């Protein structure tokens, strides 16, 4: 169960991410807001101005709503200044209560005054007359509840490319629009409605919305259409991914699936706005208004059109419209592509698998550093996509999910490592050197049991005169001498990272390249055998000097392919190697007693250790074998034994000359056991460098 936990965590993170719960969206939005705070849009002067019904204007002219005649005067001033479009972010849903007709209806007046008022034009008609001069967009409010009012008048056409946009648009059930006379006089009608997120922050502006089965434009969309003199909109809609783009005049606006555009906010700029009183007084610079889309709205707190901004402050709603228009006219779009969700999902999947494998298979420090680097790189990539390409990629929230996956995988790895370490300690504390145990603790994956083939090297030792030693010494003293002897051999084996295969009486078997493979196992085995040779000779000499009859140690070294594993079943645990190379190493150890040597190695060792000086013993058919084994005796010094090599070469070429050469060597080296062996064999009539052993 445990190894699958990281992948279950990946599945859980994916399911949570795809379900898009509100807390997850809140974190994503907070990250996007932080991006904007780090790098707000750079303000560039664009043909967009706000005529602000600010506190100062209200103080000078009077509280809102102003008489429609005053509003008409404002419109005429802007038309005279050459505004490309005049856009009202205010609603004229009711008749002007200061109109003459309203006064006549609601106020008792003298007949002469009433007659004079009756001759005056209606204020709403005055405003309608100003609107007819062109270029004016009125705002309407979209409502979720039922509304008895008629839909706003349409002044636009729409060209659809692809599927219908209606299923993707935000749905409203009604509208509150301007007076019909004003609508008929205006060049366009657009929705002033925002769709803030759950935290109240306005991050996107809708370009269209749906009321019933009717497509209605937003105030921003109508401002662009009228400001460019366009007649229609172009909507590109994909049946599966929703609205992709809205075209208005020369503008191509990338949108969300529901037809919204992301707003990349700038910090507040006073040059964006002109107070309404200044325009009415004729003091507004004409250059600031000529050719501009002019939005009329309010920043006065009492009129309650204030919105939360991603930059952290509160801004007037009319400024949100203005900033959206600036982006479109400047071609500076902030987008969250339709493929973003798919990319983020794939990153969660692949990143989760990668981090799981990293945590499960790498060392803790390495996996932590690499995993942390991957998570930081993802977050940095999200920021880079925003800062350089104005793309909103949510790579932070997936990073949080991947962090959870990594933690789960790390916990699984830690639990598995503890379990493996306990097993390794119990299984090998009696078999391998302490430094090898430490290596297995760090790399338990290199340990495999159950029987596998691999190349190994073996060192076999046997003490001569063991029976005589036990009979000549008190039992306690003999056991103590033997333990010291075995401890010295085992210490040497562990120093060369050998594995103690078994101890049988005074005999020791040492294995190399198991359980952990060692590329240089033949060299290790040779070095171990030579070190044991030196130790045992010194140990025997010390005891013999004290009068204790301690014999010599015979050593055999061989290398080959064996089966290594856990043998014995559940009743008894025995980790060892099985195969012909094990028997060959044992036979080489026994061969020493017949040829006058204490250390014999095979050609397999010789081939892997060409630097080690050795002299050939011969090709020996060992007891129980059918094929000969080339046997060598390692030399103690660094130089080759050239006289011996020359004599040995004559064994095949000139048997008579070989006998003469070996007899000369024997005379010079009476203590050289291998030379004496060859002399004895040649004198007995044997020829060549190959012979067979009939005894172990």
UniProtKB/TrEMBL annotation:
<protein>
    <submittedName>
        <fullName>Adenylate/guanylate cyclase domain-containing protein</fullName>
    </submittedName>
</protein>
<dbReference type="InterPro" id="IPR029787">
    <property type="entry name" value="Nucleotide_cyclase"/>
</dbReference>
<feature type="transmembrane region" description="Helical">
    <location>
        <begin position="392"/>
        <end position="412"/>
    </location>
</feature>
<dbReference type="Pfam" id="PF00211">
    <property type="entry name" value="Guanylate_cyc"/>
</dbReference>
<keyword id="KW-0812">Transmembrane</keyword>
<feature type="domain" description="Guanylate cyclase">
    <location>
        <begin position="457"/>
        <end position="589"/>
    </location>
</feature>
<dbReference type="InterPro" id="IPR007890">
    <property type="entry name" value="CHASE2"/>
</dbReference>
<keyword id="KW-0472">Membrane</keyword>
<feature type="transmembrane region" description="Helical">
    <location>
        <begin position="365"/>
        <end position="386"/>
    </location>
</feature>
<keyword id="KW-1133">Transmembrane helix</keyword>
<dbReference type="InterPro" id="IPR001054">
    <property type="entry name" value="A/G_cyclase"/>
</dbReference>
<dbReference type="GO" id="GO:0004016">
    <property type="term" value="F:adenylate cyclase activity"/>
</dbReference>
<dbReference type="Pfam" id="PF05226">
    <property type="entry name" value="CHASE2"/>
</dbReference>
<dbReference type="GO" id="GO:0035556">
    <property type="term" value="P:intracellular signal transduction"/>
</dbReference>
<dbReference type="InterPro" id="IPR050697">
    <property type="entry name" value="Adenylyl/Guanylyl_Cyclase_3/4"/>
</dbReference>
<feature type="transmembrane region" description="Helical">
    <location>
        <begin position="339"/>
        <end position="358"/>
    </location>
</feature>
<dbReference type="GO" id="GO:0009190">
    <property type="term" value="P:cyclic nucleotide biosynthetic process"/>
</dbReference>
């Amino acid at each position: 169960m445990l190894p699958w936990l990281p992948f279950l965590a990946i599945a859980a993170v994916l399911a949570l991410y795809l379900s898009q719960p509100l807390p997850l969206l809140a974190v994503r939005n907070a990250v996007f807001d932080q991006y904007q705070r780090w790098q707000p849009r750079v303000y560039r002067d664009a043909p967009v101005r706000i005529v602000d019904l600010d506190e100062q204007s209200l103080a000078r002219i009077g509280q809102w709503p102003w008489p429609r005649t005053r509003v008409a005067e404002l419109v005429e001033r802007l038309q005279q200044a050459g505004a490309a479009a005049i856009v009202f972010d205010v609603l004229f849903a009711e008749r002007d209560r200061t109109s003459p007709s309203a006064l006549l209806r609601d106020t008792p007046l003298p007949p002469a005054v009433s007659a004079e008022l009756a001759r005056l034009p209606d204020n709403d008609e005055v405003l309608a007359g100003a609107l007819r001069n062109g270029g004016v967009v009125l705002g309407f409010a979209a409502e979720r509840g039922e509304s008895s009012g008629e839909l706003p008048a349409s002044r636009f056409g729409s060209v659809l490319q692809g599927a219908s946009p209606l299923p993707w648009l935000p749905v409203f059930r009604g509208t509150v629009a301007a007076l019909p006379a004003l609508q008929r006089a205006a060049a366009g009608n657009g929705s002033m409605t925002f769709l803030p997120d759950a935290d109240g922050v306005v991050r996107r502006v809708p370009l269209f919305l749906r009321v019933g089965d009717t497509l209605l434009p937003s105030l921003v969309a109508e401002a662009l259409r009228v400001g460019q003199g366009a007649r229609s909109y172009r909507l590109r809609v994909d049946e599966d991914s929703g609205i992709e783009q809205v075209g208005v005049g020369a503008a191509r606006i990338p949108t969300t699936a529901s037809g919204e555009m992301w707003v990349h906010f700038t910090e507040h700029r006073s040059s964006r706005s002109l107070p309404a009183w200044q325009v009415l007084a004729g003091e507004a610079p004409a250059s600031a208004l000529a050719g501009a889309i002019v939005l009329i709205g309010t920043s006065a707190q009492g009129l309650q059109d204030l919105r939360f901004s991603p930059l952290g402050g509160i801004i007037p709603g009319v400024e949100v419209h203005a900033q959206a228009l600036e982006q479109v006219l400047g071609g500076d779009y902030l987008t969250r592509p339709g493929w973003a969700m798919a990319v983020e999902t794939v990153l969660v999947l692949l990143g989760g698998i990668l981090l799981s494998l990293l945590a499960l298979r790498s060392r803790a420090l390495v996996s932590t550093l690499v995993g942390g680097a991957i998570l930081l790189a993802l977050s940095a990539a999200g920021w880079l996509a925003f800062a350089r390409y104005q793309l909103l990629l949510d790579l932070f929230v997936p990073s949080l999910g991947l962090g959870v996956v990594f933690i789960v995988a790390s916990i699984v790895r830690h639990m598995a490592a503890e379990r493996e370490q306990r097993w390794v300690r119990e299984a090998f504390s009696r078999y391998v050197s302490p430094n090898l145990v430490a290596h297995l603790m760090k790399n338990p994956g290199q340990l495999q049991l159950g029987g596998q083939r691999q190349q190994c090297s073996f060192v076999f030792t046997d003490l001569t005169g063991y029976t005589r030693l036990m009979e000549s010494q008190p039992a306690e003293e003999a056991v103590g001498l033997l333990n010291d002897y075995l401890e010295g051999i085992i210490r040497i084996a562990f120093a060369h990272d050998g594995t103690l295969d078994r101890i049988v009486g005074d005999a020791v078997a040492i294995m190399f390249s198991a359980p952990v493979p060692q590329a240089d196992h033949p060299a290790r085995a040779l070095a171990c055998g030579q070190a044991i040779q030196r130790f045992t000779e010194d140990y025997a000499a010390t005891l013999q000097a004290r009068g204790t009859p301690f014999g010599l140690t015979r050593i055999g070294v061989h290398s080959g392919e064996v089966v290594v594993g856990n043998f014995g079943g559940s009743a008894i645990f025995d980790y060892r190697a099985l195969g012909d190379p094990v028997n060959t190493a044992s036979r080489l150890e026994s061969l020493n007693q017949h040829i006058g040597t204490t250390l014999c190695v095979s050609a397999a060792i010789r081939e892997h250790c060409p630097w080690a000086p050795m002299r050939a013993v011969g090709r020996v058919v060992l007891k129980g074998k059918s094929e000969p084994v080339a046997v060598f005796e390692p030399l103690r010094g660094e130089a080759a034994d050239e006289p011996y090599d020359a004599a040995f070469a004559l064994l095949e070429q000139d048997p008579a000359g070989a006998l003469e050469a070996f007899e000369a060597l024997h005379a010079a080296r009476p203590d050289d056991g291998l030379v004496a062996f060859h002399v004895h064999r040649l004198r007995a009539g044997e020829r060549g460098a190959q012979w067979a052993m009939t005894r172990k």
